[in-house]
Each structure stands twice: as C-alpha cells, then as structure tokens.
From TrEMBL:
<keyword id="KW-0732">Signal</keyword>
<feature type="signal peptide">
    <location>
        <begin position="1"/>
        <end position="17"/>
    </location>
</feature>
<dbReference type="GO" id="GO:0042597">
    <property type="term" value="C:periplasmic space"/>
</dbReference>
<protein>
    <submittedName>
        <fullName>ABC transporter substrate-binding protein</fullName>
    </submittedName>
</protein>
<dbReference type="Pfam" id="PF13379">
    <property type="entry name" value="NMT1_2"/>
</dbReference>
<comment type="similarity">
    <text>Belongs to the bacterial solute-binding protein SsuA/TauA family.</text>
</comment>
Length: 330
C-alpha cells in the first residue's frame, strides 16, 4: 500500500497541477526568534490562524536565546529567517560579513520594556533614579541602549548618577529583582504586569513611549537567500502582515486567547493586560515596512550608547520591497 501511494504521488507531482488537481509541497522556512515574548504576538497569531500555510509555507519556529546566537544560526544556515533586533544586522555589517544580513519585515516598532519601581509612588519623575540601584539589561542589546538613551533624555548619566547593574542574564533579570536586587528594573511584559499583580513592583514609565518609534524587532535573512528565494520571502511577509492586521483589528482578550498556547505558564488575565499595554502604546507594527526615519532613530540610540562604529546604509541593510507589496496586495 505504501509503495502504491508513493508511486501515485510521484506520478501526480510530475504532471501539471491544473490537469491533475495535485498541489506542490509547501516551502519550508525555519525561523529563529531571539526569545519567546508576547511582544511578538502577531507572529504567533499568524502561526495559529494558519496565515503562513495559506501562503504555501511550512514554518518551523525555534527560540534561540541571544542575538549573537541567532545571527550565528542564520549565517551558518541553521535557520533561514531571524527575528531579532535590527541592531544585530548592523553589528554583522560592521564586522565585514560577505553575505549581508537584510531587514525585510518589521514586527515591533517601539521598545517593549517598562520601568518598574519597587516602591509605589503617586508622582514619579526620572530624578528619583539618581542615587538608586538600577537593574538594567545586557550591554549592547537594544533594551539597554534604549534605557540609557531615555535616561540621557532626562539628564541622567547611567554610569555616574546611579548604580547600574547589567551583568545578569536576560532570563534571570526578573527573578533577581523579585529576590530583592535593585530599586528599579527594566522589564518586558508579562513580567511587568505580573509584578504589579503580585505587589513586587509598580510600572512607573514606558521606555517605548519615551524613546519613540524604532525598528525594534525585525525579520531578517541573508542577501543570498533573498536572491535565491524572493517568492518565499514575499509569501512570508504576506503572512506576517496578515498577523499584524489581525492583532490590530481584534481585542487584547482575543489576541491573548489565540497566543495562549505559547505562554501556558502565564495567567490569562495577565496576558490580556500585557497585550493591551502594548496595543495602547503602538508597540505592534501595523505593517511590515521599516522606514528610514525609524532606521535613523535606531542609529541615534546606538550612537548615544557608543555601540555604532559608523552609520549603516539603509539602502544596503533594509529591503522594503516585500513589505510594500504585502500592503498593496492586501
């Protein structure tokens, strides 16, 4: 029976689909996301709603902690598409990579972290951070660079005006604060909402609102892959755009319900609250187009943090062709 089926399938694929009624196999694309985060809600919606399958893609998602590790997987061929901060493509370019890493579809457009204070206050000002112990993010990463940029806007030098802790691994930052380290901490959702619910800390400011629109998390791939697979990249971008549009047109509760399987350890109400917070501040990009103004803002932030050797060419590291086609075609 198996032999008969295999022979029949082979014969079917050898004929034109219009005559035989057989469809071609799906194109496979492996995504490596830098972390599992509800900040990436449109991606999970696209997976759960079957938007990638509608485009004829078989998508395999894996979580690869650390931007450097994601880039290694991409450059070595372990994945076809990376979901990570745009700054990583600039770092790769600065190192002189022969095969340029190109940003082709933006997923999030603001920083996703919040300033959480251990003690509740009725009237917060950034001046209160002076002299405090601040539990920040990893040096060179986008969250930390944005954090320093925002503090600088409020005339706070993070190196001299407070005690900055940034040697704790990303996955352990929340637990370190919960165990008593620091008076302030920079956290993503849903940890920020969970800490509020449990009385561990209180959200006093949004780094996303303070820093403006930036290409915070973007899908990128090697130029050689784009050259060889432009159709697959277009289909991929179409699916991402469908996910973005779905999230934009549905309630936080509906989105939380769809992506719940990716966050089984998170209380559904906390998940909904966190999604709502991101919706309210416009963190989820409404479309996948990464415009030049956002790119320039990213480099301003990197430059202020001392992480930019030289300005990166927008026309070289960003390709908006696929994103614009997705918008025009939907």
């Amino acid at each position: 029976m198996k032999r008969f089926f295999a022979l029949g399938l082979a014969a079917c694929l050898a004929l034109f689909a219009a005559l035989t009624g057989c469809s071609s196999t799906s194109e496979k694309i492996r995504i490596g996301e830098v972390t599992r985060s509800l900040f990436y809600a449109p991606q999970y919606v696209a997976l759960e709603k079957g938007f990638f399958k509608e485009e004829g893609l078989d998508v395999e998602l894996s979580t690869i902690p650390g931007g450097d590790k994601v880039m290694s997987a991409l450059l070595s061929g372990g994945i076809e598409v990376a979901l990570v901060g745009s700054e990583t493509s600039i770092y790769v370019s600065q190192q002189g990579a022969a095969d340029v890493v190109v940003n082709f579809a933006q997923l999030t457009q603001t920083d996703g972290t919040f300033l959480v204070a251990r003690n509740k206050t009725d009237s917060f000002s950034f001046e209160q951070l002076k002299g405090s112990v601040f539990l920040g993010q990893r040096k060179g990463g986008m969250p930390q660079m944005v954090g320093e940029y925002v503090l600088g806007k409020h005339n706070i030098n993070p190196q001299s005006d407070l005690e900055l802790i940034q040697n704790i691994e990303f996955k352990n930052i929340a637990s370190s604060f919960a165990s008593g380290t620091g008076e302030f901490v920079q956290l993503f959702e849903p940890e920020a909402s969970r800490f509020e619910q449990e009385g561990i800390g209180h959200v006093v400011a949004s780094f996303g609102k303070e820093s403006g629109t930036v290409p915070y998390t973007v899908y990128m791939t090697k130029q050689s892959y784009i050259d060889s697979n432009p159709s697959a990249i277009q289909k991929f971008t179409n699916a991402v755009y469908k996910g973005q549009q779905w999230v934009a047109s549905h309630s936080a509760k509906e989105t939380a319900e769809v992506i719940g399987k990716y966050f089984e350890q998170i209380d559904p109400q906390i998940l909904e609250n966190a999604v709502q917070r991101y919706l309210e501040q416009g963190s989820y990009a409404a479309d996948p187009v990464l415009d030049e103004q956002e790119w320039n803002q990213l480099q301003e932030i990197m430059d202020a943090a001392g992480e930019l050797k030289q300005r990166a060419d927008y026309t070289k590291l960003v390709n908006t062709t696929f994103a614009k086609q997705s918008k025009e075609g939907n």
